[in-house]
Write a structure and sequence with these properties.
The chain is built from 13 helices and 17 strands. It is α+β, with helices and mostly antiparallel strands.
């Protein structure tokens, strides 16, 4: 559904809050379309005296009368006099039955959107009369509710800035259940779906003629857990949203006070059974908590393994065996660091810059206990999937350790880590990672020797699906370049 664009807002003579008020209208006017059984169109006056269509909504309670979208088009000549009259009079204007096509007769109403005494725009309501019949009580009540809301628009009383605009799922709609109350909160009419919703809560009597507040109070089992907004919603005094739960059933309620120039004369309450939605949300919350707990326990177990390897290395007599256990300990600790990061959030993505910022310096320090090594990092990795982050963290750990132990070879020096993430083909991204040092350089025969380099090549080519190259660094030392394709459409 389209709404007015910035160019129209630029030349619109809007006061403070006017544009926001019209945005609220278009965000909530599906309610009126459903109640009125009519298409609604929003027209904005243009400097040349005409009107342009800014938005259009179709009802979900009946068929539409406009199958083509006319947003952005100029107003038709036969509709303009009615819209002009509504704009001038600032009251609802109704035309007679008008044959706009050979197949359909429509009743058209023009409703001025008035705020602070100024007509900001005009809403036209188009209802099909070609299949007219004796309307039911439900239809008569719905149409009266729509008229009351549209009349409030002409007074600037609706939409209300206090209306709920949250994104939580389960917002009630007209078809889910509607209850109309008088000023005292006594139910005047309840739709069949509204009655069914309250019966699922445990109320088996008719709702009409009873106080909705008393009905709701009688259904509450644990009043200590009652939402503080509930009394104001079930009495229709405030345009808020709340929920009530009983017998394992959850209803979400939304109140819309009905007002005129002098007083509040009633209210509408929309209700919807959201039990299944809330159950699924709880399952997701429970699932997320379970996943975080698993990552936390894996991290703890890996740290225990690393600690055992450290203890065992201290008992080793062979220097080669001691170094092997220390290298295994560092690798396990690197994997544990990824799981620690995952245990702190809901998403299965890792902020790799935060993770590698800690690990990069630590890897250099652990590998150089007797020498001074500086580390410099530049560029951004961004967020990476956990299954991508774990092997990449291991690769960087191995290459940094190799750069310190073999590249610098006991000398003072610097290790650089650079990341460059750029768009590639077919909505993919190319991640370029460079690890460089200013040491003695890597001999050709060393490329194929050592468990660490074998691990690196295997992880890059098999786990990450990338490429890796060693080359001399300009100015001395070694440069390792890694290129990886990040494709969000391919699960890893």
């Amino acid at each position: 559904m389209a709404i007015f664009t910035d160019p129209i807002k630029d030349y619109a003579d809007f006061g403070p809050g006017d544009a926001e008020w019209l945005h609220l209208l278009v965000g909530d006017w599906q309610l009126i379309a459903d109640l009125a059984f009519a298409d609604l169109a929003l027209w904005f006056p243009t400097p040349d005296g005409g009107y342009v269509a800014l938005a259009h909504v179709r009802p979900s309670t009946t068929h539409t009368v406009f199958h083509s979208d006319f947003v952005g088009e100029r107003i038709r000549a036969d509709l303009k006099p009615l819209v002009d009259a509504a704009r001038e009079s600032q009251v609802i204007e109704r035309s007679g039955e008008t044959n706009w096509t050979t197949e359909m007769a429509m009743r058209v109403e023009a409703v001025p959107m008035v705020r602070n005494g100024r007509t900001l725009a005009i809403v036209t309501s188009h209802m099909d009369l070609s299949s007219s019949r004796m309307p039911s009580r439900l239809e008569l009540t719905y149409r009266q509710c729509a008229y009351d809301l549209l009349h409030m628009c002409t007074l600037g009383l609706w939409p209300d800035f206090a209306s709920p605009t949250g994104s939580r799922r389960g917002a009630p709609r007209v078809g889910d259940g509607l209850i109309r109350m008088d000023a005292e909160g006594v139910v005047e009419y309840a739709s069949p779906n509204g009655v069914s919703a309250f019966r699922r809560l445990g109320d088996v009597e008719s709702l009409e003629g009873r106080s909705l507040a008393e009905i709701t109070t009688g259904l509450l089992k644990d009043r200590r857990m009652v939402d503080e907004t509930l009394p104001l919603v079930v009495t229709g005094r405030m345009p808020w949203r709340t929920e009530i739960e009983s017998r394992g059933v959850t209803l979400t309620l939304r109140a819309i006070p009905l007002r005129n120039e002098q007083e509040r004369f009633g209210a509408l309450v929309l209700c919807r059974d959201v039990s299944e939605l809330r159950r699924r949300e709880m399952e997701l919350v429970s699932k997320d908590a379970t996943i975080r707990e698993i990552h936390h326990r894996v991290k703890n177990n890996l740290q225990t393994v690393a600690a055992l390897l450290r203890m065992q290395s201290r008992r080793m007599v062979s220097e080669e065996g001691k170094q092997g256990l220390e290298q295994a300990m560092r690798r396990v600790s690197t994997i544990a660091l990824v799981h620690e990061t995952l245990s702190q959030g809901l998403a299965q993505n890792v902020d790799f810059d935060e993770l590698i910022g800690r690990q990069f310096r630590l890897s250099a320090e652990v590998a150089s206990p007797t020498q001074t090594v500086s580390t410099e990092r530049s560029g951004d990795f961004g967020e990476l999937p956990s299954e991508f982050a774990t092997p990449l963290a291991l690769v960087i750990n191995e290459l940094v350790t190799n750069a310190v132990e073999h590249g610098l070879d006991g000398r003072t020096g610097t290790v650089w880590l650079t990341a460059d993430r750029e768009p590639s083909e077919a909505e993919t991204e190319l991640l370029k990672v460079t690890i460089a040092d200013d040491g003695v350089g890597l001999p050709e025969e060393a490329k194929s020797d050592g468990l660490g380099l074998q691990i690196v090549r295997t992880l890059v080519t098999s786990e990450l699906g990338g490429t890796i190259e060693w080359s001399p660094r300009e100015g001395g030392g070694t440069c390792v370049n890694i290129e990886l394709i990040l494709d969000p459409t391919i699960p890893r």
